[in-house]
Amino acid sequence: MAVLIGIDVGTSGTRALAVTTEGELVAEATRPHDLLTPRPGWTEQDPAQWWEACRAVLAEVAGDEVVGLGVTGQMHGSVFLDSSGAVIRPALLWNDQRTAAECDEITERVGEARLLELAGNPALTGFQAPKVLWLARHEPDAYARVASVLLPKDYVRYELTGERATDASDAAGTLLLDVRARDWSGEILDALEIPREWLPRVYEGPEATGTVRDDVADALGLPRGLPVAAGGGDNAAAAVGVGVVQEGSVSTSIGTSGVLFAHRDAFTPDPSGRVHAFCHAVPDAFHLMAVTLSAGGSLSWWRERLGGGASFDELIAEASAVEPGAEGLLFLPYLTGERSPHLDPHARGGFVGLTVRHGRGHMTRAVMEGVAFSMRDGLEIMRGLGTPDEDMRAVGGGARSPLWLALQADVYGRTIRRTEVDEGPAYGAALLGGVAAGVFADVAEASSRVRLRAEVTEPDAARAARYDELYAVYASLYGALREQMHVLGRLAG
Question: Which of 8, 96, 178, 234 is catalytic?
């Protein structure tokens, strides 16, 4: 029985899955990572811990029947290596916020409109490019030693294969890629004075980027000569794993953050940069992505800080008993600023419309509805860019809750489907590994192994009409309160 392995180098841990060529899960293993926060707003990790975790999980799922391997992981992070391949300092992660000044510098050097035209996105603190400039400005001794800059999953690939390589979907999140050309932008690199030789070769997601080194294969119980696919950034790999690989397919995910991911055959960036435009892990394809920073995170905050010791099940049961609209109560889920569509790290959350009638159930429902409205903000921008969304698939923790599913169906006005297997990015990475190994002819054949559940969640016409009215009010609140949010943030220090 041929087996494929997918590795996901996530923020909280590294995960490996082994699946058959028919898509059946046969083994899995996970190891946690430590998060380093040396200063407020800074997030770092030790790449050596990623590699140690990767070796541990691979050893658990390895076997002679493995024929292909794919890698995925957290996007945007920066791993700095010297000329010997040694790590210079801890990696700067996607959620590190130290580079606001460098983002302004990038916008000035490249030009706001030109940056959107080439890279598909504005300069944001999460991306890799401002991290490189930050190192040059603040740690010049370390910068002087840099010979290579890799993304997190690509550091693990380097340890596995000895090859410096990346894929187009992950590279598109660096702000250094010409997304249309699917290769590094000489214009951006020149403007930022970043040597091209520091960057790895860019492959398409299902292409083989080398094979596992013999010593690593022998140590972990893998066959020698095992091909390693380029893989994808975590969201692109997850999309492959749920079959979002053609026009009209959109995934909606509610985890800590909320993500809407839409396949596009053509590069269609938002002129204002309110949603991300990246390469897909599907060769020559692209995707649009909208991100709500505190989606399930808002519900977790509500439960932990103000839930009175209730479980999630208890809170959601109370919310389910409340009528749509929570008797005129709205929630803005900007607890950690907001990405799509506001691009505002200083946005603040809040309840609007509170009365003495409102209790915990109303407020829980308002939190969940506010998350769905925030995600609709991104969906409306995608629709304005001509993005079809007839085939909408729910993934992540929110897909397992009937109330979350119903809210998404009603607020988006779309039927929501689920896949039989929802194993996240590692599952898609395994399928990409199958293409690299020649098990599948292409990504379309690999994703044909994805099966949809028979049951679907249909929008209710009356609730959908009610939510249309509420959404119009919700959509007006950020603009009305933005200045006050910023003042309150300054007053808070």
Answer: 234
